[in-house]
């Protein structure tokens, strides 16, 4: 909107409340007479024509349809004019979107209730929209973390290849993630260690220091990593393969995850989500090396509700029929994840442990070992109740901490999460998204162009 002021200086006001001077001099004066008026009009017309040409060369605000007519960097920042990301990505998400308006995920209408009633009323309900706005700060934290996740995983897909050591893959991914999330103690950072479980190992594997494992052409690798802002966690995973013989396995698991997402919603029973996921997963058969397998959901792995600084906050989303009849509730966040296997469809603890997490509900426990006390202080300061791994302790300069770590585990202060494996020779795949059960709609906040 343009507003003319008494000095004949035109102020352009954008929707964000920013003003900038167009500097269109009127050039008229009553004392100059008609010739002065004509000359002034001619000058203004020329300047307007020049300004129009310049405006066409400048980008427009895609959302508001407003032309920015100033090159002033401060104005651009205040109005939320997004800067470009580098390649490889190095610019933090908060600097790409300085106005705090982070990209939303996929917004979906809730599924109809059992009696067939539509949930479309939620979108137009003024009460629900007001409740949505009241939680905007929380949704914004999730969206910022989700955008970091999207950009990091896009970057990872551009270079991950057979022959790379798993420890290099994880550290390269985590370095990028720390930059984009703009790591800041417990206010922003990585939500849990990068899982890169291979083949029959379904989850909770990340290499410890000295692990020589290398990614191979015939591997099925699950990349599972998390980001957070103010403890609002994005838990999202995908599977990487290079041999096309695994394509059908990945398709089955991705379809099952998307089905679980579609079924999820306010007042939906968790057991109903699991039954639907199982039905879709088991409808797939895959042929690998001349042998046909029915894809089995891994029955003892689940999705879960997500709390602030708490990756598993109490509710589980099964991927087989049965389970809890507990209902999903408005305002909750969930990780909808499915695992498909060519093995038994059940996992057990195996291999060397790398993942650990402080017990969220632990109270005061007396600790006698001085080194254990020191280690707990390090964990509290750097990770709180978020999961961590031994590599991260190494990165902080900690050494000779294994006995202290075992002591904290024995006392129940820290819980170990060893790798979870199906039978050797089998293959497992995983896909996962974080969803927000907002009052108006369901937002698949981690959805991207890739999956």
Features of the shown structure:
disordered N terminus, 12 helices, seven-stranded antiparallel β-sheet, single chain, Arc Repressor Mutant, subunit A, three-stranded antiparallel β-sheet, Creatine Amidinohydrolase, globular, 451 residues, alpha+beta
Detailed description of the structure:
The protein is α+β, with helices and mostly antiparallel strands and 451 residues long. Among the domains are: 236 residues, Creatinase/methionine aminopeptidase superfamily (Creatine Amidinohydrolase, Alpha-Beta Complex); 65 residues, Arc Repressor Mutant, subunit A (Orthogonal Bundle), CATH 1.10.10. It is built from twelve helices and 21 strands. Strands 4, 11, 12, 13, 14, 20 and 21 form a seven-stranded antiparallel β-sheet that branches. A three-stranded antiparallel β-sheet has the order 1-2-3, with no helix packed on it. It starts with a strand and ends in a 7-residue tail after the last strand. Binds EIF2S1 at low magnesium concentrations. Interacts strongly with the eIF-2 gamma-subunit EIF2S3.
Chain oligomer state: single chain
Average pLDDT for all residues: 87
For the termini, the CA-CA separation is 40 Å
Low-confidence stretches: 1-41, 56-82
CATH homologous superfamily of one domain? Answer: Creatinase/methionine aminopeptidase superfamily
Please state the second-level CATH architecture of one domain. Alpha-Beta Complex
The amount of helix comes to 25-40%
Largest sheet: 7 strands, antiparallel
Given this structure, which CATH class of one domain is correct? Alpha Beta
DSSP strand tally: 21
Query: Would you give the CATH topology of one domain?
Result: Creatine Amidinohydrolase
- The general outline is globular
Number of helices: 12
Query: Which structural class matches the secondary elements?
Result: alpha+beta
Task: Write down the Rg.
Answer: 27 Å
**Share in β-strands:** 15-25%
EC number: 3.4.11.18
Subcellular location: Cytoplasm
Pfam families: Peptidase_M24
Enzyme class: hydrolase
């Amino acid at each position: 909107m343009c507003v003319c002021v008494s000095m004949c200086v035109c102020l352009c006001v954008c929707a964000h409340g920013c003003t900038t001077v167009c500097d269109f001099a009127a050039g008229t004066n009553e004392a100059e007479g008609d010739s002065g008026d004509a000359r002034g009009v001619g000058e203004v017309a020329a300047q307007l024509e020049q300004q129009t040409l310049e405006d066409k060369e400048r980008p427009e605000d895609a959302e508001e349809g407003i032309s920015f007519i100033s090159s002033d960097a401060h104005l651009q920042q205040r109005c939320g004019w997004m800067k470009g990301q580098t390649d490889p990505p190095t610019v933090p998400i908060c600097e790409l979107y300085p106005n705090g308006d982070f990209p939303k995920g996929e917004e979906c209408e809730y599924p109809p209730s059992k009696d067939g009633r539509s949930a479309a009323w939620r979108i137009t309900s003024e009460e629900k929209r007001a409740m949505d706005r009241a939680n905007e700060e929380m949704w914004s934290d999730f969206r910022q973390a989700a955008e970091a996740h999207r950009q990091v995983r896009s970057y990872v897909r551009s270079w991950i290849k057979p022959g790379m050591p798993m420890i290099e893959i994880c550290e390269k991914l985590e370095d990028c993630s720390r930059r984009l999330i703009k790591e800041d103690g417990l206010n922003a950072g990585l939500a849990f260690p990068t899982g890169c479980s291979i083949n029959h190992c379904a989850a909770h594997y990340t290499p410890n220091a000295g692990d020589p494992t290398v990614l191979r052409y015939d591997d099925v690798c699950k990349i599972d990593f998390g980001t957070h802002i103010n403890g609002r966690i994005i838990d999202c995973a995908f599977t990487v393969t290079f041999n096309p013989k695994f394509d059908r396995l990945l398709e089955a698991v991705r379809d099952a995850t998307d089905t679980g997402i579609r079924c999820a919603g306010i007042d939906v029973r968790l057991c109903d989500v699991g039954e639907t996921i199982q039905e879709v997963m088991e409808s797939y058969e895959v042929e690998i090396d001349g042998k046909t397998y029915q894809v089995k959901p891994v029955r003892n792995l689940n999705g879960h509700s997500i709390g602030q600084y708490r990756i598993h906050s109490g509710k589980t989303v099964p991927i087989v029929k049965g389970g809890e009849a507990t209902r999903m509730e408005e305002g909750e966040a969930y990780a909808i994840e499915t695992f498909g296997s060519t093995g038994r469809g059940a996992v057990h603890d195996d291999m060397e442990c790398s993942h650990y997490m402080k017990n969220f509900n632990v109270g005061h426990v007396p600790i006698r070992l001085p080194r254990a006390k020191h280690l707990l202080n390090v964990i509290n300061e750097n990770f709180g109740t978020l999961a961590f791994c031994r590599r991260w302790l190494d990165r902080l300069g900690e050494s000779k901490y294994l006995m202290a770590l075992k002591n904290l585990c024995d006392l129940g202060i820290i819980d170990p999460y060893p790798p979870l494996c199906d039978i050797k020779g089998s293959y497992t795949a995983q896909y996962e998204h974080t969803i927000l059960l907002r009052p108006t709609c369901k937002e698949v906040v981690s959805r991207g162009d890739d999956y």
